[in-house]
Specification:
alpha/beta, 645 residues, Archaeosine Trna-guanine Transglycosylase, Chain: A, domain 4, binds zinc ion, homodimer, binds magnesium ion, six-stranded mixed β-sheet, TIM Barrel, six-stranded parallel β-sheet, globular, zinc ion binding (chains A, B), 26 helices
C-alpha cells in the first residue's frame, strides 16, 4: 500500500506500508549481501533493504536457513525486505539456473515483503526486435508470477532497452496487472557510462504509462549524484550496492561526483568519518577497516541526500535542487536538459502552488513546468492593447511609477487605454493584475540577464497578437529595434475588480471571474500590507486571498457562486455516497472515495467537493492531481474546509 | 608568514604560520565570544579562531584576565588567535570608546597572534566623498598601528564602501605597508541583502591591488553558501559567528541556503546531529540544548565546505564547485556572472595546467579564464585556410574520418590544402594539432547545446580572418546559411612535426616550435595508446609529452634549445647567486631567491631557471605565477628537475 504525502514536479514523498513496517519514500534500499554483511545499515537511516533471493536460493546453507528462519532472520533485519530474483545475474552472466516460478515461490516462502519476477534485463542499444521479444518474455513472467505469489507484494519490472516506445508498451501492459511496485530495469549501463539523456528517456517513457499509485524503483541507482534528478522523474525507490562496492575500490561518494581516496588531501563531507579521520590516516589503515569506514561515509552521504530530496519535495524546491545537482557533470546537465521534452507529462502532476519560490538558475529553468504552464495561459488569454514594461522589483504594481512614457512599436498606435504587462524572467509576460500570484510573484532571477533569457523574452513579445507597445528600456535590453515611437503616457493603475476577476480566471478558469465577483463587491485590505484580504458581496464573504501565494480560498458563498457559475466537472471532485456525510462535516476526502473529478485539478488547487448528482458538499484544497485522485486507493486526496453547506 | 601550496583561478590553498601554530587556508575562524563560549570548536576542525579585543578591553574582569593569562588562556584556545578591534561595534553603534593606539597596543599585550587596527567600516551606498574621507582615516590608522605593535601580525582592512575605485585605492595604499594580512571590510550588509554582484566588485577591486603574498580575510563571511565563490576570488580567511547566531534563531546552515527548523521534516545533512536526531526531537528540546546541537550542525557543514573548497583548489575543480554552489540563489549566480568582468585579473593567476577536466555547466562557463585564454591565442594564431568541422568525440583526430566532405562557405573557395579546426564547446575553435592538449582535450559539455553556446560558436567562426569553409552539419547546428558549397574533400591527417611545433608554440610562445624541433626529429610513441611520448634529435631526448595534459616536459637538451632559441626573459625564472648551486643540483627554487621572471609565467608552466646573467641552471615546473614569484618570500616557487647542466 502506497500513499502520497507531498508532491513536486513528478516527484512525491510517500509512505509504503508493508507487513514489516512503513517506509518513507523516496527511500534508499542498501543492498545486503546474505551471509557477508558486516555493516548495520539501520543506524544510517535505512528503513528498507534489498537482498538477492537468487544467491540465497543457490546456496544450500543460506537456503535452508532462509526457509527455516525467514529472510529477515537470515540477514538480521526486522524492517521491510525486498528481494531481487536473479535478473542481475542474468544480465551479468547471460544465464541463471532457476525458473521464474521457482524463484517467485521461493521469495514468497522465505517471507520477503516485496518479491520480484525473473525479468529479462535487456541492455541498451540492442535491436528493436530483440528488445520487443524480451519485453514479451518479461511481461509473460510478470503475469504468471501473480499465480505463484501468495502473500508478498510483487515487483513487475519495466524493460525495453533504449527504445522509448517499448518502455511505454511494457509499462502500459504492466499497469494492467494487479502488482504493487514497478522497478525500471537495465538502466545501470546507462548510468555507468554517463548516458543520462537516454536514462531520462527510459525513465520518463516508463513513468508516463505507470499508475501513479505504485512506487517506482530505479534499479541499481545508488550514486547520490542522481537521486534528485531521478526523484524529480517520479522514482520512489533506489538501491545501493555502490556504498560498499565503491568503498572496496577506495572511492568516496558525493553529490558532486566521486572522490578517489588516493587524490584526497581533505575529507570532503560533514559525516563522522570525515570529521574523525584524515585521508592519510585512512590510507594507512588495514584494507578492511578502511573499507568499512568509507562505506560508512558512503551511507551517510547517500542517506543525507535522500533526506534532502524528501525535504525538497515537501518544500517545493526539488527542481532547484536538481538544477544544482546537475552541475556535477555536463552529461547530467544534458540529461536534465532532455527532461524539458517531457514537460506536458510533468504538467499533469505538478502542484499549482508550493511552499517555496521559483529560482531561475540557468537557461534550463525556462524549460520548467511552471513556465510552460503560465505561457499556455498567456497564449490563450493575453489579448488586446498591451503596454510591455521591463522588469522592476516585485510586486510590480507597487514599484512601477503611476504612469510610464517612452514606448515604441511596430506600427503607429493611437492614444488610448493600455493594459500593462511586465516582461520578466522566468515567466515571460505577467499582466499587472497577476503580479501577486504564485509563482509569478514568488520568483527570482539573476539581475544580469543571459542570452537565452533575452531571446525568450524577445520571442514572446514578437509573438503577441494585438496591439503592442514596448518600453524603450526593454527594447534596448532585448535588442529590439522598433520604428515607431509612442508619445502617450501609460497608466499603471490596476482596478481592484479587474485584478480579482483576472486572478479568479487564472486560478479557476474561464468565466470564474464573473461567476465569483459581482460588480458591487466590497474589498477589505490587510492593515499591515495594504493587500487585498477579504472579498464580500454585501455582508457575505466570498473568498479570502491567501497571503502566501496570492490565490483565493473560497468561503461557502464563494463555493456556491463558483458551483453555480460553472458546469460539471469544472473544479469538482465527486465522492461516493458513503463518504458524503463525512465531506459535509468537513472531514478530509480520501482518494478511495473519489468517483470522478475535473482532469485539470492539480495539487494545491481549491476544489468543490460534490456528490454524484453534482450537489455541493464542501470545499477544500487538493493534495493530489486528478490522475492520482482517480488512481490511488490510500491516503488523503483533498483537505476539506469546514463548510456551511 | 604565508606560503601558497596550490592554486585555481584566484583561489589558493596555503599555510599561514603563527607563533601558535600553522593554519591551512582557506580557513574558517569561528568567532569566540570571550566569557560566553560553550562549544569547543577545535573538534570540528578549527585551526584558528577570532575573538573581539574591544569586548575584552571594555570589560574590567575580562581585561584583567586577558592581561594576566593572555588571550589564549582567556578563551581557552591554544592555537592561533585573531582579534578584531571594535570596528564591528563602530558599524553597529556608530561609536566606540577606545582610541586606535589603545586597542592596537592592548591586542599586542594580551598576546593576540593577529591584531587589527581600528578601521572605519563604511557601509555600502554612501557618497564617494564620505567613503573617501573614511578610507583616509582607515589608512592613517593602519599606518600608525605599525608603530604601536610590537610582535603581533597586523591586519590592515580594505574599505571603500561600494566604490570600486576607492577599494582599489585603499588596497593599493595598504599594499605599501609592512602589514601581514588584509581583511576586506564592511561587506556584511551586501551579503545579508544578497547583493552579491556588488560583493564581487568590492572583493575583486580590493584583491586586484593586494599583494598575493598576504592572506585576505572576507570579514563576516560565515555562511558556507559563499565560501567557494569567495575562495575563487582569492579570499583565504572567513569568520563565522553565523554558526551560533543562526542556531539561536533555529536556523540550519547549508551550502544550498538556510533551513528553518520549523519547516524541516528531515535533517538535511550527513553530520552526527543530522544522523542522530529528527527535526521534531530538536523542536521538543530545551532551547539551550537545541541551540548547541544546531550550532554543532552549523560548524560541521561549514568546516566540511571549507575542506571541500581546499580539495577543489588542489584538484583544479574550484570553478566547477563555484558553478554548482551559485545555483543556491539567483543573486549568487548573478554575482558569479559578474566575475567574468574580471577575467583579465584572474588570467594573471590561473594555472596553465590542472589535475581535473573543464566542465561546461552553463553559459557562465564560457566566461571562465581557460576559455578567455585560449581565445586570445586563437585570435592571434589561427590564420590561413581553415576547414571548420563540428564536434566529435575526443581526441578529435582519432575519431574524425580520414577525409571529410560537405562544406559550405561565404565566398567561392578553390581546391587545395586546408587545416582542420574543430568548433566545440567550451573552447570554441581547436586546431587538430592541439586536440590532446590541456584543457582543450580535458573538457566536457552537454551534448544538447544551449543557445548561448551556439551563439558563441557562430560569432567565433564569423570573426575568423582568412579563408574558411564550414561543414554542413555545423552550419545547420549553428543556423549558418552560407551560399557556396565546397565540392572538395578535406584530409584530417595531422603531420607529427606540425603537431609538435604547434604544441610548443601554444605552450612556450612564438618561435618555440622551430627552436625546439629540427626537421629531422625522431618521435617515439606509447605502445599502449599510440600517442607521442618522446621526441629526439638523433640520440638526444628533447622532450617528453606528459600523458596527463599533453604538454611537454623538457630534457636538458630541450631546455638548452629553448634557451638558445628565445630571448630573455621568455620562460625564464632568474635566481640570485646564493641559490644558484642548489638550482644546479636540481633542488627546488624558493620564492625568496627569485630576482626576476617572465611576466607570462603561470603555475604549471615548464620554465627555464637561469642566473642573473641568463646562464641556464635547470628546468622545472612553476608552482606559482609570475606575480607571486616576485612577491612571495616563503615557500617553493619552482619544482626543479634534476638537470644535466
Ligand atoms: Mg522553489
Ligand atoms: Mg575541473
Ligand atoms: Zn563523510
Ligand atoms: Zn547536519
Amino acid at each position: 500500500m502506497f500513499e502520497i504525502r507531498s508532491k513536486d514536479n513528478l516527484g512525491r514523498t510517500g509512505v509504503l506500508k508493508t507487513e514489516h513496517g512503513e517506509v518513507r519514500t523516496p527511500a534508499l534500499m542498501p543492498v545486503i549481501h546474505p551471509g557477508k554483511q558486516t555493516i548495520d545499515v539501520k543506524r544510517f537511516g535505512a528503513e528498507i533493504v534489498i537482498t538477492n533471493a537468487y544467491i540465497i536460493y543457490r546456496n544450500p546453507e543460506l537456503r535452508d536457513e532462509a526457509l527455516r528462519r525467514g529472510v529477515h532472520g537470515l540477514i538480521n533485519f526486522d524492517g521491510p525486505v525486498m528481494t531481487d530474483s536473479g535478473s542481475f545475474q542474468l544480465s551479468e552472466y547471460g544465464d541463471v539456473e532457476v525458473e521464474n516460478h521457482e524463484i517467485v515461490r521461493f521469495q514468497d516462502e522465505i517471507g520477503t515483503d516485496i518479491g520480484t519476477s525473473l525479468d529479462i534485463p535487456t541492455p541498451p542499444g540492442v535491436s528493436h526486435r530483440r528488445a520487443l521479444e524480451e519485453v514479451e518474455i518479461t511481461l509473460q513472467r510478470a503475469r504468471e508470477s501473480l499465480e505463484y505469489r501468495e502473500r508478498m507484494m510483487l515487483n513487475a519490472v519495466v524493460q525495453g532497452s533504449t527504445h522509448p516506445d517499448l518502455r511505454r508498451y511494457c509499462a502500459s501492459q504492466l499497469a494492467e496487472l494487479p502488482v504493487e511496485l514497478h522497478p525500471i530495469g537495465a538502466v545501470v549501463p546507462l548510468m555507468e557510462s554517463y548516458r543520462y539523456r537516454e536514462l531520462v528517456d527510459a525513465v520518463l517513457s516508463s513513468v508516463s504509462e505507470l499508475p501513479p499509485s505504485r512506487p517506482r524503483h530505479l534499479m541499481g541507482a545508488g550514486h547520490p549524484m542522481i537521486f534528485a534528478l531521478a526523484a524529480s522523474m517520479g522514482c520512489d525507490l533506489f538501491d545501493s550496492a555502490a556504498y560498499i562496492l565503491y568503498a572496496e575500490d577506495d572511492r568516496l561518494l558525493s553529490t558532486e561526483g566521486t572522490y578517489k581516496l588516493e587524490n584526497l588531501q581533505e575529507m570532503p563531507c560533514s559525516c563522522r568519518v570525515c570529521t574523525d579521520y584524515t585521508p592519510s590516516e585512512l590510507r594507512g589503515m588495514e584494507a578492511e577497516d578502511r573499507r568499512n569506514l568509507i562505506a560508512e561515509h558512503n551511507l551517510h552521504v547517500s542517506f543525507a541526500e535522500i533526506r534532502k530530496v524528501r525535504q525538497a519535495i515537501y518544500d517545493g524546491s526539488l527542481m532547484e535542487l536538481v538544477e544544482e545537482r546537475c552541475r556535477a557533470h555536463p552529461r547530467l546537465l544534458e540529461g536534465y536538459r532532455r527532461m524539458s521534452a517531457y514537460v506536458e507529462l510533468s504538467e499533469r502532476f505538478e502542484p499549482r502552488s508550493k511552499r517555496s519560490a521559483f529560482f531561475y538558475t540557468g537557461p534550463e529553468s525556462l524549460g520548467r513546468v511552471e513556465v510552460h504552464r503560465h505561457l499556455q495561459w498567456v497564449k490563450k488569454n493575453l489579448k488586446g492593447r498591451m503596454a510591455i514594461a521591463g522588469p522592476s522589483r516585485k510586486p510590480y504594481s507597487s514599484t512601477l511609477p503611476s504612469s510610464i512614457s517612452g514606448f515604441r512599436s511596430m506600427k503607429p498606435q493611437a492614444d488610448g487605454e493600455w493594459s500593462v504587462v511586465v516582461a520578466d524572467v522566468p515567466f515571460g509576460l505577467i499582466p499587472l493584475e497577476l503580479d501577486q500570484v504564485y509563482p509569478l510573484a514568488q520568483s527570482d532571477a539573476p539581475g544580469i540577464m543571459d542570452l537565452e533569457a533575452r531571446h525568450f523574452l524577445r520571442e514572446l513579445i514578437l509573438d503577441l497578437e494585438g496591439d503592442v507597445i514596448i518600453s524603450e528600456d526593454l527594447c534596448s535590453e532585448l535588442g529590439l529595434q522598433l520604428p515607431h515611437p509612442y508619445s502617450g503616457e501609460v497608466e499603471t493603475y490596476v482596478d481592484d475588480l479587474d485584478r480579482i476577476r483576472m486572478i479568479a480566471e487564472y486560478q479557476f478558469g474561464e468565466g470564474a471571474g464573473d461567476a465569483l465577483f459581482p460588480d458591487d463587491v466590497r474589498i477589505e485590505r490587510s492593515r499591515n500590507t495594504g493587500k487585498i484580504r477579504h472579498i464580500y458581496s454585501g455582508e457575505k464573504l466570498i473568498c479570502t486571498m491567501r497571503a502566501s501565494d496570492g490565490l483565493f480560498v473560497l468561503s461557502a458563498e464563494g463555493a456556491r457562486r463558483l458551483h453555480d457559475g460553472t458546469a460539471y466537472p469544472r473544479c469538482r471532485v465527486a465522492v461516493n455516497e458513503e463518504s458524503e456525510p463525512f465531506a459535509r462535516e468537513g472531514r478530509s476526502v480520501f482518494a478511495k472515495f473519489i468517483i470522478d473529478c475535473d482532469n485539470n485539478i492539480r495539487a494545491g488547487d481549491e476544489v468543490l467537493i460534490v456528490n454524484a448528482h453534482d450537489e455541493l458538499l464542501a470545499t477544500g484544497r487538493a493534495l493530489l492531481c486528478a490522475e492520482e485522485m482517480m488512481d490511488l486507493n490510500h491516503g488523503q486526496a483533498v483537505k476539506t474546509r469546514k463548510g456551511g453547506f
